[in-house]
Amino acid sequence: MPASELRPQTPAAAQPPPPLQPSDYEREEEEFVWTQIKAEARRDAESEPALASFLYSTVLSHSSLARSLSFHLGNKLCSSTLLSTLLYDLFLSAFSSDHPLRAATVADLRAARARDPACVSFSHCLLNYKGFLACQAQRVAHKLWNQSRRPLALALQSRISDVFAVDIHPAAKIGKGVLFDHATGVVVGETAVIGNNVSILHHVTLGGTGKAGGDRHPKIGDGVLIGAGATILGNVKIGEGAKIGAGSVVLINVPPRTTAVGNPARLVGGKEKPKEHEEVPGESMDHTSFISEWSGYII
Amino acid sequence: MPASELRPQTPAAAQPPPPLQPSDYEREEEEFVWTQIKAEARRDAESEPALASFLYSTVLSHSSLARSLSFHLGNKLCSSTLLSTLLYDLFLSAFSSDHPLRAATVADLRAARARDPACVSFSHCLLNYKGFLACQAQRVAHKLWNQSRRPLALALQSRISDVFAVDIHPAAKIGKGVLFDHATGVVVGETAVIGNNVSILHHVTLGGTGKAGGDRHPKIGDGVLIGAGATILGNVKIGEGAKIGAGSVVLINVPPRTTAVGNPARLVGGKEKPKEHEEVPGESMDHTSFISEWSGYII
Amino acid sequence: MPASELRPQTPAAAQPPPPLQPSDYEREEEEFVWTQIKAEARRDAESEPALASFLYSTVLSHSSLARSLSFHLGNKLCSSTLLSTLLYDLFLSAFSSDHPLRAATVADLRAARARDPACVSFSHCLLNYKGFLACQAQRVAHKLWNQSRRPLALALQSRISDVFAVDIHPAAKIGKGVLFDHATGVVVGETAVIGNNVSILHHVTLGGTGKAGGDRHPKIGDGVLIGAGATILGNVKIGEGAKIGAGSVVLINVPPRTTAVGNPARLVGGKEKPKEHEEVPGESMDHTSFISEWSGYII
Amino acid sequence: MPASELRPQTPAAAQPPPPLQPSDYEREEEEFVWTQIKAEARRDAESEPALASFLYSTVLSHSSLARSLSFHLGNKLCSSTLLSTLLYDLFLSAFSSDHPLRAATVADLRAARARDPACVSFSHCLLNYKGFLACQAQRVAHKLWNQSRRPLALALQSRISDVFAVDIHPAAKIGKGVLFDHATGVVVGETAVIGNNVSILHHVTLGGTGKAGGDRHPKIGDGVLIGAGATILGNVKIGEGAKIGAGSVVLINVPPRTTAVGNPARLVGGKEKPKEHEEVPGESMDHTSFISEWSGYII
Amino acid sequence: MPASELRPQTPAAAQPPPPLQPSDYEREEEEFVWTQIKAEARRDAESEPALASFLYSTVLSHSSLARSLSFHLGNKLCSSTLLSTLLYDLFLSAFSSDHPLRAATVADLRAARARDPACVSFSHCLLNYKGFLACQAQRVAHKLWNQSRRPLALALQSRISDVFAVDIHPAAKIGKGVLFDHATGVVVGETAVIGNNVSILHHVTLGGTGKAGGDRHPKIGDGVLIGAGATILGNVKIGEGAKIGAGSVVLINVPPRTTAVGNPARLVGGKEKPKEHEEVPGESMDHTSFISEWSGYII
Amino acid sequence: MPASELRPQTPAAAQPPPPLQPSDYEREEEEFVWTQIKAEARRDAESEPALASFLYSTVLSHSSLARSLSFHLGNKLCSSTLLSTLLYDLFLSAFSSDHPLRAATVADLRAARARDPACVSFSHCLLNYKGFLACQAQRVAHKLWNQSRRPLALALQSRISDVFAVDIHPAAKIGKGVLFDHATGVVVGETAVIGNNVSILHHVTLGGTGKAGGDRHPKIGDGVLIGAGATILGNVKIGEGAKIGAGSVVLINVPPRTTAVGNPARLVGGKEKPKEHEEVPGESMDHTSFISEWSGYII
Fold first, then answer.
1. Where are the alpha helices (DSSP H) in chain A?
2. In chain B, where do the E strands start and end?
3. H helix or E strand, kind and range, residue F264
4. pLDDT > 50? residue D298
């Protein structure tokens, strides 16, 4: 999340629109990842006939990542009253026409592959990661929200919450290269902002403060790592490259490159002079060393 | 939760039956809320054709809130072995014949609308809130349980847990005007009692103490607020208007209008003379100020 | 979990294969439990016609526990792109040919019945317990993983995570007589090992340490009890008969028959001379007394 | 078909309404047939576990014939855009409130049982005869048509035609005790009238004369038998107790108790003095003797 | 069917491609019909809430006739192994890119409306006429056949035959403004050709002559009317504006504007000097007068 | 049909059981055809990605023809109250254990390939021919009927009639190498017998004579060809190698190698000295030359 996100936000309408065409880099990235996914799916279909039908219908019969993802999301999120064809159409229309959406998808696939040792391939993430899928669907809901198609955006949120147990408000802003690992139980509120290259584990809450409306949810800076079960409440800033320990309950601002742990969370090294780390934890994914360290402080 | 709930419970059979007819107030409330829901759905159907089919099938084609809700629950909770028609019939029969059930539904809709700033309309809650839907379905399961139709009640519990990731035992007693916000991961045990006007966030557990049967789950008084991820274990009493902080682990009685936070939870202000607050936290929904305060105590 | 599990593991290929035939004890156990299940289902079908169709299709029309369970899992876990017939075939082939798999199923049914006071019958567990069902499906995924059918194993994991909100890596090793109670939100990583007669509550995480591969998840000894919401991270050993308190965050080895509680978790009685208990907590299921005791230590 | 049907029809609105309550005879008939159906279904469920789930869901879980039939029709005729719950509701509302509809159903069940030697039981007809099911659904469509709910009536006609390959216009009037045997390919036009105790084989057309509107389809008297593949075109009268040979093409009035055969159809015995028979062919179901006889005439 | 169709056919590849853009007339026609359909659907949705969901999902939520039709066909023809999203995509891609396909659809809607007195609106035909729907789907299958995507074309034929009981080989050529009335049981062989403005009733067969391949099915000229149950076998020519009586079995060429009736069919007026009629029977739809006339000849 | 079939039938129980094992010829035939089917499906999957998922799920993921066919039939014939898994199990159990059933399937595939010029491959028949599929399902229903599992056999008949519009009583006996071409509208009664190498077109009825039970349906000899729309009524014998013209209505015995045509049907060449042909029409499939010839006789 660039620093600007942490300043009072410019209304969406006032922001410069994205360039009309994807950059060469984006195009190459998308092409590369899609080529990989097809190669992986082809290899898996050959080695495992029982899965081949699934792989052909979800990946190999499609001419682009946008189509494959739209098909998969449409089939996952449909219900007897929200048909797969309708959802497929909705997703396809969004992903086809909005290259920054696709670039975010590609960055998320890269993130899962780079940071999660259990992620054995891009196609594994595309097909099986509920956090990845929930995030892509939320981005489309977010687009609908910004187009003032709010009832539809909220209906999507509800389907995502039912199907994936991931509940992200369509108004929440999510950056690129985000990894929702395992993802079950993630709750992200309406005015939350999540920066780029953030990693968020399951059962994480970015929650509000009460029944008043307004800007009331956390702002998560670029490169932050939030451990499993952490609860962050209120319009607090988690600075770039900060770490939040598993199970922490955070109600305070956390400065960049520092670590907060515990219930209630405190800064490792102390409030006055918190210890700073060098690496970007959202990318290095070191979940535990800092907690051990902190435990050392207090035990 | 009236004090009587906290005393050894009279068996259901011995309790006075509800009046045969809804009161004028109940009738008007139901009429008002249903009229609102239809107006909202009509407005949304007009502005969003992609959602109109969903809104007509779930709301606008129905002649009453009971029918709309039964249809929606039947379609959400059905499976290939428990057909939607069977569940629809079951829900419709319960809601049609039992006006206190309907009054509780109306009170829950009111609660969501009043307390959750993200709840933009009654229909948004009716259609999209898994906590609301799980709670209504549990009330029907509870009715079946009390009619000694226990295998069916347990099958419903299982469907609710699969579909909504909300696991409330059918024997648990739930008051009116209850808000399960986000709701994913809520677990409520067999002998738990939840009073009126309670607000419970996601990942909250009202759990038991072990493998012995008997009365072994928490009793939550009226107006209580339980923060995200709180775990309350055993037959403890959480007094009227108490607050339980997010992420707390509570194994003690919490007196009325006091606050418990932390793992293990302690009373803010201390065990001997806990600080009392004025407002009803289940309604004011102040999730954070008290924790900050408490943090101040211990950091 | 036998001690051998805690030693560097022999590759699966090198382990002695299970005996070709089930022992008499296993056969009798399976027969006994299946006979009970059918009797329970028949009783319930008679008393509750609305459930009879469900009970006949899932239990009473089948000639064995393996068929009933395969049918039920196939119908629960199928999707529009992974058909029930395919999954049924897959499960049936696994359960029919692998008697240790069936013996583990039977032991799990026994465990639920013995330890969970809300479990009123074997059929209640078989039909309605998502933790039980997720565990049986994971065992089949584990078998596929060991047969190098990894894409299929991962697809199963994804379906289990979508449907039950239980996310167990197919490579994780799970013993017999395991109870996943409520189960929503359980996450178990790739190199985790869970011993025999373990009880694990909902929202429990057995997680990794970061983005490096290798042996990085907890090893849970036989008879351990892990309370709701506990997070155990890294390649730590939780010794036989240990208890982990609800909501704890554990990053340390926990010696046999000791108790760890809190965030971060500490041993009850202190690191140097932790208090030892006599009972097997995974079986006695005492979730709270030790925490109260510990609370006493620190408050 | 009473003679009055053959006279210029009184508009539906002008006809005397049916008595408000079923007669004792109707009540007893319905009770008798429903009791039989349940006994048959129970016997079959006991002898054939693989069918028990089907029999419980369609018959044994229901408290009345109206509910069982509505459930079965709702599940047979539903589609992804016309949900089973909606259709169930529609059918149940019609059958519950309209006892002549139910009496016609009972008479049709009696007719199949009495006239079709392959009909082994009432439940066999109720569950498996597409002609019976299409006819019951058409009666409901007819009721909707008369209530000026024509788009819905036509949508039902379309579903019946898709599912059963039986295409009967909702405006067509059908008497009681009618047997559509095999039924595939039956087409009945908008202004056709079918009397009581008529038997109609598969591939029978009661068609119109061209593109002009108005009264343009056949009127079939009581007790008529129409053989397989017969085509009757135009506003012709087939008199009471007449027979139409298989494969005939009929464009003429056929007097009561006479036989028409051939393509184009001629009266057996000649136009001037056709041979009259004694029995009611719609009930005796003699499909062939008369044709042989006729063949004798012309070969 | 222009005379050229009756000459040895030029291979598809050699035919001049259709113009790249629809003509103004086609555009206006499509626009007019689509506007009508939406107005009809809106009116029906308002008057019949039980059908509104269906009408919104199939018509009112779509931005074009091509989308509405593709959605409806995709949902009608899908199966558990050929998903609606896949079929929707296939249909949409064909209809969007091929304006002559859309023009044929519009002409067929016009034909049903003009010739069938039971066709009360364009939307009635679009939504409910299996003959119309089967014909549109066949045209897409025909396009696939010509693109050498034969396995897919044959799979579509199979679905159309299962769902609509209409079995038209994808290689058959069908003109514009064709009405398949009722349609159940229609069979059209591989080398059949059907001209423009033809009307074909149900159970009509355009069949082959035996097991030899090659050009072996009927060629039906423009404006022909084929009555219910007629069977036309072999590579015979049914001249422009000819009529074939219901139930006829035709193995001979039928000259333009003449009538063939009977089994085996003969020309009305005699082989040598058949009677000629003035009107275009495929449009006037006079099914019966000529047969009566003919009956007069032979009785 | 061997002559013995035409004699009073020995009860099934008294017939010699089939040999326990398939002959080498049967084994090789099955192997050959299955190998072909897989090769065809693989070729089609490669050339048509949109169909690959279908081909993998129905053919390429299966290890035998019996499994592939059982899967396909289970998915085609299932309904919301008769699940695909149940039907799959039923079909698989029949085909796996009964090699004569499989040999008949193979002979039918051979017949379609040899006789129908539109049948481009074995897999085309297996996947797309409703006549083939209905016949295989009927054979399983027949087996159930003979095992006194009549309610299940009748439920299957009903599903086959709904899904394929092919209505064959489960008691009817059908030989090997039978081709039901197009098949829509075929009706075959309870006591009908169909010999080997018979070809039957669509809309053919083998019907009964009235409401009396007993042996009342046609017996069709080996090698018979029955044209489209022919109706054969009563316990008549159609001798080996006879032909029945399209649209004929047959109520008489037809001697071997003779031809019957017309309504009512007469023997070509006259009753006394009918013309005999040399070829086996069920195999040569000459549908028309004989009718033309006959037409010559009578026009």
1. 24-47, 49-55, 65-77, 84-97, 99-115, 122-128, 130-146, 150-164, 281-284, 289-298
2. 167-168, 173-174, 179-181, 187-188, 193-194, 199-201, 205-207, 219-220, 225-226, 231-233, 237-238, 243-244, 249-250, 259-261, 266-267
3. none
4. no
Chain B: give the shortest CA distance to residue D73, in Å. Answer: 11
CA distance F30 to F69: 13
Strand C266-267 and strand D167-168: the pairing is unpaired
Whether E75 contacts E84, CB under 8 Å? yes
Query: Do the beta carbons of residue A38 and residue A60 sit within 8 Å?
Result: yes
Amino acid letter for position B162: D
Q: Do F88 and C88 touch (CB under 8 A)?
A: yes
Mutate which of C78, C85, C149, C154 to disrupt the A interface (most A C-beta within 10 Å)? C154
Q: Please tell me the distance from the alpha carbon of residue A109 to that of residue A105, in angstroms, as a whole number.
A: 6
Tokens read off for C286: 């005492």
Asked if pLDDT for residue D9 goes beyond 80, the answer is no
Quote the CA–CA distance of C264 and A229 in Å, as a whole number.
13
Q: Which residue has the tokens 């025909």?
A: E142
* Tens of pLDDT, residues A201-224: 999 999 998 777 799 999 999 999
Contact assessment for residue A153 and residue A144, using Cβ atoms and an 8 Å cutoff:
yes
The token pair at A76 is 């996952």
F264 and D261 within 8 Å at the Cβ level: the answer is: yes
Domains in chain C and their CATH numbers? Answer: 1-166 (1.10.3130.10), 186-299 (2.160.10.10)
- Interface check for A47 against chain F (CB to CB < 8 A): the answer is no
Largest separation between any pair of C-alpha atoms in chain A: 60
Tokens coding F213: 């039970």
Q: Which amino acid is at B107?
A: A
Cα gap B109→B175, rounded to integer Å: 13
CA C61 to chain CA centroid, nearest Å: 27
Give B57's contacts in chain E (Cβ within 8 Å).
Answer: 53
User: What is the model's pTM?
Assistant: 0.93
CA angle F261, F265, F267 (to 5 degrees): 65
* pLDDT confidence band for D284 (50 / 70 / 90): confident
Task: Write down which chains contact chain E via at least 3 CB pairs under 8 A.
Answer: A, B, C, D, F
Residue of D nearest to E75 (CA): D80
Shortest Cα distance from C32 to chain A (angstroms)?
34
Q: Does B85 reach chain D within 8 Å, measured CB to CB?
A: yes
Query: Could you tell me the CA-to-CA distances from C107 to C113, C179, E83, E187 in Å, in that order?
Result: 10, 9, 40, 59
pLDDT tens readout for residues B173-222:
999 999 999 999 999 999 999 999 999 999 999 999 877 779 999 999 99
- Residues 61 through 80 of chain E touching chain D, CB cutoff 8 Å: 72, 75-76, 78
Q: Do F190 and D117 touch (CB under 8 A)?
A: yes
CA dist D169 → D153, E109, F75 (Å): 9, 19, 31
pLDDT tens string D201-257: 999 999 998 777 799 999 999 999 999 999 999 999 999 999 999 999 999 999 999
Contact D202/D186 with Cβ under 8 angstroms?
yes
Contact F80 B81 (CB under 8 A): no
Q: How far is B53 from chain E (nearest CA, A)?
A: 4
DSSP 8-class letter at D254: B
For chain C, say whether E81 makes contact (Cβ under 8 Å).
Answer: yes
Query: What tokens were used for C216?
Result: 């990085």
**B212 and C58: CB-CB below 8 Å?**
no
Pairwise CB contact (< 8 Å): F288 & E189: no
Closest alpha carbon to F185 in A104, E161, B104, B167:
E161
Q: Is C162's Cβ below 8 Å from some Cβ in A?
A: yes
